[in-house]
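Hello,

I think I submitted the pyridoxal-5'-phosphate job twice by accident. Can you confirm which output corresponds to this input? Input:
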Amino acid sequence: MEQLAIFGGTPVREKPIYYGRQCIEQDDIEAVAETLKSDLITSGPKVQALEEKLCEVTGARYAVVVANGTAALHLAALTAGFQEGDEVIVSSITFAASANCVRYCGAMPVFADIDPETYNIDPESVRKQISSRTKGIVAVDFTGQAVKHDALAEICREKGLLLIEDAAHAIGTKYKGRPVGSIADMTCFSFHPVKTVTGGEGGAITTNDERLYRRLMRLRSHGITRNREEMLHPTDALWYNEQVELGFNYRMTDFQAALLLSQLGKLEKFSARRKELVKKYDREFSQMPELIVQKEIPESDTTRHLYVIRLRPERLTCDRRQFFDALYAENVCPQVHYLPVYWHSYYEKLGYKKGICPNAEEYYRWSMSIPLYYSLTDQEADDTVRAVKKVVEYYRK
Ligand SMILES: *Cc1c(COP(=O)(O)O)cnc(C)c1O
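Support: Only one job matched these inputs. Its output is below.
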């Protein structure tokens, strides 16, 4: 058997590849350069055009572009009205920002367990976590797969909750033919460089509700309004604007918006390549009894942001750490998405205990993400498969 690189063997690849990377092409660069020469370089016509484009892509009535995905979540949580004394149910396997936005408002996240096969929030677990203090749900389309909207919508209707969808992974995904972004009360996107389309940094909230939209727009820029109907002291003076609540500067620059507009024009080709790679990985890994591949629900037409492999401990002699390190030494560098949020010491110090979400904890124990991005070549994808097979064969029981 071939010696693993970690034990001095030859690595599958000479140059490392990572789990994600952006794809910036010449026309993206030109779009940015062009905008840098224009009169307005912070929020201006490109931001407005991007908001229109996002409405077109998601089918939402309104879009509010902001500085990053975390700012999008923060504004959505504030606009939802979450405050001290409230509880908000949050997916347990997600980036910390999904829960942090609840804390920014002074409310407490309550973690719901994941479905052990799809890794998305389990509506049954959501139901069990509801109390008289529950005000809403932050549900994450983990890896890009849409959450079970029908079940979540039923719970929200029944209990009067508001649904924020954290779709940082899921631009381009559809649920029962409807694009993510037009389904939840508010949907948040991130345009960080590892996500499917990027602005360097960037985020957005989409909604169909005009009232939520107006508040989001105001909070994005200091809580200041130029709309006389929103003022306490309206006047027709041209210079006059009024800060009516405490907002932020969460604006995006126009050159980032130009980059994103250019990137969104490529969403279909980005999405198609990701789907192709997922199909290839699924084909290879579903034949290996040592691995579990993520289950896809038929309702979701998924543009995958991450590809997760999960080890079957009963078939392998290694733990996740050994598998991860061995793959890393082969220069196919994985990452783990994610630590159960409440395991972070910040949440531990708030009193959250291990054991709340057993499926999430078991998932975390055995999982890792392998390279998946638009510009990943066939050769690199083959190397990834070869490296995974090599490590599996070495540690096979
Ligand atoms: C990336 C990400 C965010 C945060 O987005 P930023 O743009 O980095 O602030 C939030 N939630 C999830 C699930 C993410 O993956």
